[in-house]
Amino acid sequence: MPQWIAQWQIDHPWLAWAIALAVAAVVYGAATLLLRGAERRLRRAPARASSWPQALADVLARTSRPLLALAALLVGLDAAGVQMPWSGAAARLWFVVIALQVALWLDRLVAVLLGNIALRTRASAVTATLLGFLLRLAVWTLAILAMLDNLGVNVTALVASLGIGGVAVALAVQAILGDLFASISIGLDKPFEVGDFVVFGSVAGSIEHIGLKTTRIRSLGGEQIVCGNAELLKQTIQNYKRMQQRRIVFGLRLAYATSAEQAGEVPVLVRAEIERQPGVRVDRVHLARFGDNGLEYEAVYYVDSADYNRYMDIQQDINLGIMRALAARGLRFAVPERRLGGTVSWTDTAGEQSGHGAC
């Protein structure tokens, strides 16, 4: 700095501070106008929940006015050549201002991104809150450590202590942490939601509540089953609520007294009975095998609904229709063999003995 400027500052300290404040006011006003203009321009973009212009506008809105005023003052002091009373104060203040403002922007960015993800994936509010807390904690921890290091504090020992303490705490509560992170996984990946009917292991029931640590299921018997989230995700879960269609396989067995011509008519009449049902698509009907007790037929069809009661109504109508069609043609169902004393016998559905032999 030229000698005459330094001497002028010594002779007129209040005038130098006045110039610094004037420059700071101009810089603050210009920066505020620029930020407001950029925010308005971004908000004029097409409004979409996941649009980046809207997200950037929300981030810019988190600009701290006190920090902006402090930054403008530092610019004014530097322009007027005012010396700070302690060595290196300006550089350290610049770092603190920048670190705090970046942390504020990242804090708002985390909230905006999690809000957009929650809208797209329909994640629960509990999951979004927990994940947001963890990310914000990481942002502010890094910002505070960086500021302390810039101010001359030895953070190496502090970081080491925090690391050791964190490991000890994690080992002590690893089961709880496992359930917490599992709840985040359930909230984001959404393998099931409240109201879904699920089956895993020996448990079958409807999801009633998904919490931070446990998931509660109302079983078919009426009791409530409480399962840890981490343990639940280890299971192979069948989610019947998301079933788009139901594949049905059923069979019937006719007595060997059925002739070849009659046996060939059975797939046709079974197919006709299935096709009579609305919302049903037939896959196949065949004479599948010669069983130990009779001719075994196998039929496969699809119901365009996941409703179990609807499926049972359809299957009942099909069964009754097949019974009527077989009775009209004089065909009888076969039943398994039964041992009666020293003979082996088999009967048809009318209860008449159709044959016997020595055991």
UniProtKB/TrEMBL annotation:
<dbReference type="InterPro" id="IPR011014">
    <property type="entry name" value="MscS_channel_TM-2"/>
</dbReference>
<dbReference type="InterPro" id="IPR011066">
    <property type="entry name" value="MscS_channel_C_sf"/>
</dbReference>
<keyword id="KW-0472">Membrane</keyword>
<feature type="domain" description="Mechanosensitive ion channel MscS">
    <location>
        <begin position="176"/>
        <end position="242"/>
    </location>
</feature>
<dbReference type="Pfam" id="PF21088">
    <property type="entry name" value="MS_channel_1st"/>
</dbReference>
<comment type="similarity">
    <text>Belongs to the MscS (TC 1.A.23) family.</text>
</comment>
<dbReference type="Pfam" id="PF21082">
    <property type="entry name" value="MS_channel_3rd"/>
</dbReference>
<dbReference type="InterPro" id="IPR049142">
    <property type="entry name" value="MS_channel_1st"/>
</dbReference>
<feature type="transmembrane region" description="Helical">
    <location>
        <begin position="126"/>
        <end position="148"/>
    </location>
</feature>
<feature type="domain" description="Mechanosensitive ion channel MscS C-terminal">
    <location>
        <begin position="254"/>
        <end position="333"/>
    </location>
</feature>
<dbReference type="InterPro" id="IPR049278">
    <property type="entry name" value="MS_channel_C"/>
</dbReference>
<feature type="transmembrane region" description="Helical">
    <location>
        <begin position="92"/>
        <end position="114"/>
    </location>
</feature>
<keyword id="KW-0812">Transmembrane</keyword>
<feature type="domain" description="Mechanosensitive ion channel transmembrane helices 2/3">
    <location>
        <begin position="134"/>
        <end position="174"/>
    </location>
</feature>
<protein>
    <submittedName>
        <fullName>Mechanosensitive ion channel protein MscS</fullName>
    </submittedName>
</protein>
<dbReference type="InterPro" id="IPR010920">
    <property type="entry name" value="LSM_dom_sf"/>
</dbReference>
<keyword id="KW-1133">Transmembrane helix</keyword>
<feature type="transmembrane region" description="Helical">
    <location>
        <begin position="154"/>
        <end position="177"/>
    </location>
</feature>
<dbReference type="InterPro" id="IPR006685">
    <property type="entry name" value="MscS_channel_2nd"/>
</dbReference>
<feature type="transmembrane region" description="Helical">
    <location>
        <begin position="14"/>
        <end position="35"/>
    </location>
</feature>
<dbReference type="InterPro" id="IPR023408">
    <property type="entry name" value="MscS_beta-dom_sf"/>
</dbReference>
<keyword id="KW-1003">Cell membrane</keyword>
<dbReference type="Pfam" id="PF00924">
    <property type="entry name" value="MS_channel_2nd"/>
</dbReference>
